[in-house]
Amino acid sequence: MPSAPSSTPCLAVACIAYRGARSFPNPEEKRMVNLKNVKVVRSIGGVELAATVDPCSWMYPGYGLQISVMMDGGGKAHLNQKSLAFEQATESDVKTLLEGVRIVPCKQCSKPAFDPTSVSTNREGECESCFMAKLNAEFAASQEKERKKLAKLDAKYKRQGFTHRVDAWIHPSGGGDDRQVSYYMTDPTDEQIKKELKKSGSCVLDDYKVIPL
């Protein structure tokens, strides 16, 4: 079914897709399977929003009905109605949740963005492009800070006579999270490095990289 034209911003159009032919023992099971695959589309001022039901709605008892809302051109947000169990929810409930989603101008560039007061999102009133640009800039700044910190350590240990830095991953023999370590060594051999990894409790002795200082 075609999406509603932008001149009717409050019209919702539902499109239901089926995963494949199968027999249902009762109408209730058929209704719930259909709801898992339902897609509701709404247009607000020319911006298309598409809502689908999140798997957590039927996977976790007491979670309530939760939808994901995708904005045409990028951006995703969530909306949860905890008081409404998936078993009691209908396609009409999905439409009602979607109708509560609002759009605001991005506070950086004025492009469409989710209104953070109407949905669960960490974009804080920014469009996807502006949010990702800020996130990438913060990541790049963090990486540069770490690079400078490591360069100072390399210079310090080089003055002390060390020739190489060994960056390695410790894979705990007793299980648990892997962790990264760095060893400063003088002309290390593979056997010396493996010995250090074994002392650190790693069950994998070849996950390392040698960097000359």
The H-and-E topology, N to C, reads as EHEEHEEHEEHEEHE
Helix fraction? 25-40%
Low-confidence segments, given as residue ranges, are 1-21
Lateral strand order in the biggest sheet: 1-2-3-4-5
The overall pLDDT average reads 86
Strand content of the residues, in percent? 25-35%
In quaternary terms, these chains amount to: single chain
Shape: elongated
Rg result: 27 Å
Number of strands: 10
Largest sheet: number of strands, sense, barrel closure = 5 strands, antiparallel
Distance from N terminus to C terminus (CA atoms, Å) equals 64 Å
The secondary-structure class comes to alpha+beta
Number of helices: 5
Keywords: Plasmid
Can you walk me through this structure?
The structure is a single chain. The longest helix is centred in the C-terminal third of the chain and has 32 residues, at 128-159. Among the domains are: 35-130, no CATH class; 161-212, no CATH class. Strands 1-2-3-4-5 form a 5-stranded antiparallel β-sheet. Strands 9-8-10 form a 3-stranded antiparallel β-sheet, sandwiched between helices. The protein contains 5 helices and 10 strands, in the order βαββαββαββαββαβ. It is elongated. The protein starts with 11 loop residues before the first strand and ends with a strand. With 213 residues, the chain is α+β, with helices and mostly antiparallel strands. Mean pLDDT is 86; it is low at 1-21.
